[in-house]
Amino acid sequence: MEKQQILDMLVDICEDDIILENPDIDLFEEGLLDSFGTINLLVEIDNRFDISVPITDFDREEWNTPNRIAGKLAERQ
Amino acid sequence: MVSILAAIEQAARKHPAKTAYQVDQVILTYSDLWHFSDRVAHSIMKLGLQRQQPIIVYGHMSPFQIVAFLGAVKAGHPYIPVDSSIPSERLQTIIAASDAKLLLSTEPLHTNISIPVTAVEDMIAQPSNEPVQPSCWVRDEEIYYIIYTSGSTGKPKGVQITASNLASFVTWMQENFPIQESSVFLNQAPYSFDLSVMDLYPALVGGHTLHAITQEQIANPKDLFDSLAGSNSTVWTSTPSFAKMCLMNKEWNQDLMPALTTFLFCGEVLPPSVVKEIMQRFPHAGIYNLYGPTETTVAVSYVKVTEELVDQFEQLPIGPLSNPNISLLEDGEIVISGPTVSAGYLKAPELTAKSFQLLNGKRMYKTGDLGYEKDGYLFFSGRKDYQIKLHGYRLETEEIEKQIGNLPPVSDCVVLPIVKDDEIVSLSTYVVLQEPLTDSAFKMTKQLKSALSDYLPSYMIPKTFKYVEALPLNPNGKVDRKRLAAWETV
Q1: Which CATH code for domain A3-76?
Q2: Smallest Cβ distance to A18: which of B219, B250, B442?
């Protein structure tokens, strides 16, 4: 799992290239992710990287930027 | 016909200590609900407002929220529920448009508004248990509540529901759905959406318990499922989108919510895939697909979704053809008649006359929904206009366009729904700026989104902004939405 793949996934989900320019962007504050986007994200993580993140482990405060999401996934690999 | 308030009073007399409402760990009993709302009504009546002058109730899921609703109608006033997620400018618009003269709050209001604000808590603090005379209550054809919904003119419109509309709806619910004694109803929708009425009043009128979940819980899934697990809910009411979200958690099943026997879905198209998954997870529960716009009081038709029905049709029907209150016009538009048709839009006679018409001597609401008939069922096939449903939220893309167009840097714009797998997943906007972009597009988007959030709730703010020099026009000189939509095909 390359970090670039994670960023590409986020670009697909958030439909915005800004993620590549600014991987520290707060996805919730900028309106790029909401509760429904979160669900979508967890499905895609499972599909693309075969990592299953239980929704009950998903804390908005800790999964709010592309870099942090990449970090969380690296921990779980 | 049942009087909503008389039935709730009876429930309060019969079992005063029973829980009427629970949220987070807070509980409100029937006795408290009844007496607190009397106090609120007395406080309102002292203000000398004109009878039927609307009262805004601002907040989220606090138990005082429903105390304020009942307090207002006991004093003879309709209430306008405004969720605390609604931005201040929109609240101001609703105050001005409704001519409300009082706002009751159950949450701190961080903005200055032009009318008096009273905390419901303060009204309740005044010790008195004097009942309000039933002769003061909102009755019959008087307005009971007003719900503001997105309007294509650029301003939200207030749908007026009468006491008899609501009573007819609740009676219909009681007659058509298996609601056992001592049920627990789940409420997921903020009170500014009438989906909440589908659980609020059947629960209170029947002397049941209402379990509310908050936006904060929904944003933190662990809290959400803890709350669901501890709720003992028997009747689930939500949009299909919300259930879809819950399905993502593999532990959301009969083991987590063993008492759940009934699913009521409304507000948007119910996908068969969602139904199939719920059938597996909750093999003992009955699933119902309901249909109806806010203008005809929550819902007017339903089908019980069985395995045979799911196998028979690719798309689920929204009702049987035998429903006497629903018919199709020649162009396929669904029109609704009967005792739940709203009194019209508040202070908007032109809009009212356009949508509420006499047809064959009966007052009808023209829904703007298109439908067709097949094998004895009615199906939904789309809209006549630019209204869309996004995650269960009803919105007019034209209203969003007008608000974006009002922002100083913008000269023109179009808002388009983004469709994936036949489902609207987000909104996108094409913007023509007054001046060419000098800074990055990202900064402009951030600025526009931030400015827009003063006027529109977050679910109405497009996810992506694209900047173009001009919008493509069709041969008639109108914006060519089809061409733009083709650019959007994912």
Answers
A1: 1.10.1200.10
A2: B442
